[in-house]
Amino acid sequence: MIRVELADGLVVGDGCPLTLIAGPCVLEDHALSLEIATVCRRICDGLGLGYVFKASFDKANRTSIKSPRGHSLAEGLELLARVKADVGVAVLTDVHEAAQVAPVAEVVDVVQIPAFLCRQTDLLLAAAASGRAVNVKKGQFLAPWDMRHVVEKLEEGGTRRVLLTERGTSFGYNTLVVDFRALPQLRGLGYPVGLDATHSVQMPGGLGGTSGGQREFVAPLARAGAAVGIDALFLEVHPDPDGAPSDGANMVRLDALEEILAKVTRVAAAAG
Q1: For residue 64, what pLDDT is reported?
Q2: 206: Cβ–Cβ under 8 A, 6 or more apart, which residues?
Q3: Which one of 140, 155, 226, 248 counts the least CB within 10 Å of its CB?
Q4: What is the number of other CB atoms lying within 10 angstroms of the CB of residue 89?
């Protein structure tokens, strides 16, 4: 049986409800984070889904050096801690360097390894030693079966609290595609699987100095993932995606989230 505890009382895998991992691309202010986390939790509670609030404190891999990145580590962790306390939800954020893992793990429930960094051995070993669950985004450049080496590094580092997340594969320039065969192939490595339906519609560097995206395809990809079989659905959401400082083109409008999740839940139930 494949099951992993992401946070206290929140388990993903066989026999468990689908878990939503959702929030803005990058932390902005507390009011926005509180709004998004509160709405997401209300929707998930109503649909019987688990929920983890996600947001990056720093977007260290922006296309342009002129693009806004977010907050310092200390500021970002303070904002995440406030959301966790005020809304009563588990929280997730990215790490980009091994030295960030220990302070991040003091606050968050899930440490996330970005797709671009999924082969960084020292980062994986630090995350594995953190005592927190680890969500690894599959690199856009990797075949799903090549993620076995990532899994081996995490296991060697001392953890089996792992979630593997598909987020699209590079298809020529500025384009990603989702090969849905990857979901059962990733799960075949022995861990629950998530689908990042928002980054999967991203067009990296597609707007020149920033990435573009096609958010109109997020909902169908999410439903397709539920039909194939996923344990977690990762979505970036925002009340005003077009005004967001990062990834606006592929983020879901917060007021569209409930309808998307209701349909995903029905598909997942029908697929068993």
Answers
A1: 61
A2: 174, 175, 212, 213, 249
A3: 155
A4: 22
Report pLDDT for 249. Answer: 84
SS3 string of 184-245?
HHHHCCCCCEEEECCHHHEECCCCCCCCEECHHHHHHHHHHHHHHCCCEEEEEEECCHHHCC
- Cβ neighbors of 74 (< 8 A, separation 6 or more) are none
Beta carbons within 8 Å of 106's beta carbon, 6+ residues apart:
77
Residue 236 binned pLDDT confidence (cut-offs 50, 70, 90)? very high
**Which residues make Cβ contacts (< 8 Å) with residue 130, sequence separation at least 6?**
101, 102, 104, 105, 111
Q: Nearest-CA neighbor of 22 among 82, 92, 106, 117?
A: 92
pLDDT score for 69:
67
pLDDT tens by residue, 44-70: 999 999 999 999 998 777 566 765 666
DSSP string, 70-92: B--HHHHHHHHHHHHHHH--EEE
Look up residue 90 and give its two tokens.
Answer: 């588990």
CA dist., res. 229 & res. 113, Å (int): 22
Angle 99-101-103 (CA atoms, 0-180°, nearest 5)? 90
**234 DSSP β-pair partners:** 21, 196
